[in-house]
Structures are given as C-alpha cells and as structure tokens.
Amino acid sequence: MKYNLLGEDMSIINLSNFVPYELKIDVEKSQIIKADNIPLNFSIRKLFDIKEVIYDQKWIENQKKNIDLYFMYRDFTRKEDKYLFDQYSIRFDITIIPPKSLGKEFNKTAGHFHPDAKIGHSYPEVYEVMSGKGIYLLQKESKDEKLIEILIIKAKTGDQILIPPGYGHITINPTKNKLLVMNNLVSSKFNSIYEPIKTKKGAAYFLLKNGKWIRNLEYSKEIIIKKAKPNRITDKPFYLAFLKNPEQWIFLNEPWIKNDW
Ligand SMILES: [Fe+2]
C-alpha cells in the first residue's frame, strides 16, 4: 500500500461522495472493489477492439498483447434504486480509464454517436468526472454537411459535461499517472453507434502525448474547433440529483423538451 502525507491509502480511491453508498476503486487494478449490494460486473474495452481509431498505426501493428484499455460498469445502481432508474429509462454507468500510452496517443475511448429518439433529435448524455482529468472531444457535422464542428472540453474532478444531441464523443485520459473515473446518465433505450468514427479511423482530431492536436486526414471537410467549458448541469452529483428529482432528467429521453442546448 502507498500512503500520502495525510496517511491516506493511495492505492484506493474513495468516491462515496458521488453516490449514496460506499464506493471504492482499486487504483492498481483500475476496478471497483466496493459498492454496497451492486454486483461488480464490468466489461473491458481492449486494445484490438479499437485498433482502427488509433493515430499511431505503426505502433499498433507491432503490438502483440491485447491489453485492457478501460473498464465499463453498466447500470451501476443499487437494488433499491433500480426501480426508479428503470421507470425513467435512465442508466447510471461508471467508466474507469487508466493512464496508458497508445503509441503517440493517450488512452481514450472508442468514440460513438447516439441514434435519434425522434427524427432530428438524437439522444443526449451527461458525464461527470469523479476522479482525475478528462478531455471530452465532441464532434458534429453542420446541417448543410459542409463543415464539422469540434468542441474540446477539459474537465477535472467534480466537473459535469453535457453531450448535446447530434455530437459524437470520445473521452481521453490526458495524464501519465492518474486514473480517470467518470460516470454518466443516459437513456437506456438505445445502443450507441460506433461505425462512423471507426470508418473514419478516429475522431476528426487526435490528441498526442506531446500536447499537440493532429488533424485526422480521413476528414476532408472544413473543421471548426471550439474550446468549451464543463457545464454545471445540477448542484448535486448525478446519482444523488437523480434520486432527488428524476423529472429533471426526462430530457435524456425527450431531448426536444429542452431548447437551451
Ligand atoms: Fe455516449
């Protein structure tokens, strides 16, 4: 075990302030080790699952080991809260992205879009950083299909990030030694669409470990990059905010009721 100057165990991250139960993460394993009565089931995204979207193709060609990239805990709610989440068709997920090097790039998620809830209104999503730092890259083609808008959002512990309808999104852990732990609230009514980003071999830009953003040449359209700030979506951590007022999250299934995106 490693201890800091305050005598706290550094090999465990305690995230109990984000949820109504004791939540602990083992840093070494990048996995949840304690979460009340919730089964600790997770799925792993592995290196070869996302090989197409990695910038450093020379590096990936030489990799023999299909390493674990990140860990996904889907529908991570207590038994007693399950009914409420199900009633509103909303899922609470936790994702743990350890610091890793993917050749010249930082560790990142595969990236995906969401389908439409109703024609012209795709499902939105909200993310919350529970520990570490994350960079969220959001991208969307303009209505006239002439250009692509990219939003880059840098987030730290406690920050909340809104993914408005229509934006594909990837999350990057831009650190060399810090676990990124995040949660999200999202509609449970759809499956994500991975194909567009996979076909284009990644998002429209790649963030390299040297801090440079490199354009993905598979995209030929004009690209506009905007820096955006995390949003303060709600005063409380998402899980607690949902239990207190689930009505506040209806927009996740009915995005048309919200017009101030
Ligand atoms: Fe998503």
Task: Characterise this structure.
- With 261 residues, the protein is mainly β.
- It has one domain: Jelly Rolls (Sandwich).
- Helices cover 10% and strands 38% of the residues.
- The strands form five sheets. It has a six-stranded antiparallel sheet with strand order 4-5-6-16-11-14.
- It is globular.
- The model has no long low-confidence stretch (mean pLDDT 96).
- The structure holds fe (ii) ion.
Q: Which characteristics define this entry?
A:
Jelly Rolls; binds fe (ii) ion; 261 residues; mainly beta; single chain; six-stranded antiparallel beta sheet; six-stranded mixed beta sheet
Bound molecule kinds, no repeats: fe (ii) ion
Structural class: mainly beta
Strand order of the largest sheet: 4-5-6-16-11-14
**Distance between termini?**
45 Å
Mean pLDDT equals 96
Q: Quick one: biggest sheet?
A: 6 strands, antiparallel
User: Looking at the chains present, what oligomeric state does this protein adopt?
Assistant: single chain
What is the CATH topology assignment? Jelly Rolls
Please identify the top-level CATH class.
Answer: Mainly Beta
Order of helices and strands: EEEEHEHEEEEEEEEEEEHEEEH
